[in-house]
Amino acid sequence: ITNIGLDHTAVLGDTVELIAAEKAGIFKGGPAAAYDLPEGVRAVLREKAAAAGTELRFADFGELAPLSDSIDGQEFTYRGERYKIALAGEHQLKNAAVALEAIACLRRAGFEIPPGAVRRGLESARWPARFERVLQGPDFIVDGGHNPQCLAATAAALARYYPHTRRVLLFGALADKDWRDMARLLIPSADEFVCATPESERALDARELAEFLRGEGCRAEAFGTIEAAASAAYERAGPDGMACCVGSLYMAGAAREYLLRLGEGNK
């Protein structure tokens, strides 16, 4: 179980404790690993784990020490052992720590997993559309983050890797998400917004999103297609800026596909 935030609240519940109780349905006996979570959430997971006969391990982020960090990857130690990942963002170090706890669970269950295999696995892990740099010169990041928790991580990563860079955000969201809160989280990260409508019948119309952003004092324009919005974001970033597509997995896939074609055409 990784980090737990308020998402899919109509189905899972409107508090992190209720959501944790639903996610704990994955416990079926045997070992399990979980994120370093607040005590109230831990208590819920412990109770559910005990009822299922599950041995539960929590990651300890106090044992996590960054060594180097760039858009291309990070080095860190966890519980005194050194590792590398090719994923950007502090949140990915935390996800790696949970993966290492899962390895510890498997070892306790009798699986023989050599340290070298663990290191190779972490180094080779890739996660398309999760703060993925799809183009360079200017950089174009595609991130499928689609709730306030994810977008807070995206905003932190933008500040970390592009602190003094013009940033154009391609933003779209589903209408049933907390899109106003999502937008407000991104506003400090954007010099300009281009808005698109995700490929879903639940999508928020890009024109409504752009109007909201303008009401918040932002420069924002809506486009009729995801490709048109991605092209505009790329052009407006300019040679010294960067662009980032964020807000919906229903938009990220189409934007990524277009940008990969654009990159091939520019070679």
TrEMBL record:
The protein's Enzyme Commission number: 6.3.2.17
PANTHER family for this protein: DIHYDROFOLATE SYNTHETASE-RELATED, FOLYLPOLYGLUTAMATE SYNTHASE-RELATED
Leading EC class: ligase
Top-rank lineage group of the source organism: Bacteria
A GO MF term: ATP binding
Catalyzed chemical reaction(s): (6S)-5,6,7,8-tetrahydrofolyl-(gamma-L-Glu)(n) + L-glutamate + ATP = (6S)-5,6,7,8-tetrahydrofolyl-(gamma-L-Glu)(n+1) + ADP + phosphate + H(+)
Record's GO cellular component terms: cytoplasm
Protein name stated in the entry: tetrahydrofolate synthase
Keyword field: ATP-binding, Ligase, Magnesium, Metal-binding, Nucleotide-binding
